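re: ur question from yesterday

yeah so i grabbed the chain u mentioned. its 196 aa long if i counted rite. heres the sequnce exactly as i have it in my notes:
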Amino acid sequence: MSDDNLFVSDWAGYPELFPNLADEYEFMLPFVRHSEGEIFERLDGARGGTLMAWGIGAHIVLKRWNRVVPNFDRIVLIAPFLAFTDYASEKVVRHMIRNMRQDAQQEVRLFHKKCGFPGKLTIPERDFEGLFAGLEYLRSSRAMPSHMGAEKTTIIHGEHDRIVNLHASEDIWEIMPKATYTALPYGHWIPEAELG
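ran it thru and got these structure tokens back, copy pasting raw so excuse formatting
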């Protein structure tokens, strides 16, 4: 049995945000490089190893939870949520969509800054359509996980997260009390050295 180490990233969560993990893990970028269906298919086919998933990536994993859990030895959910609009106003998403139409490059940079990422990326224009699709997805997508696999799951959330409220992880931890839950003194982006 081979070990599949997968990292399913967040909206605009480019590999440059986690360069070492991107080297060590198969890196999936939702809506820009991989559709939800492609991510589901890859998760379903995995055998062993570690799954890390951040933000919208963690949400996608939670949507497929009962099918995903048996396929991995260890699961790390970073800033997960069951439904984004339970923790942030839909107006926030609409506002981001509007700003993306005016200056997509600037909106992604503002998002990264708000996440706490210290770098500055230039996003290829060909990615804009996928980024729009990811924002639309956040407006209505909902996950319903179970307690299954909690003992091999670690939930990590930044105490100063300005994107996904800390309560999102706490609510998931209530469903999975056997999971390990850690709040770290960061924002939405957590340095990869903390995720090992």
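noticed a couple things. The chain has one domain: 6-86+135-194. also The longest strand covers residues 153-158.
anyway ttyl
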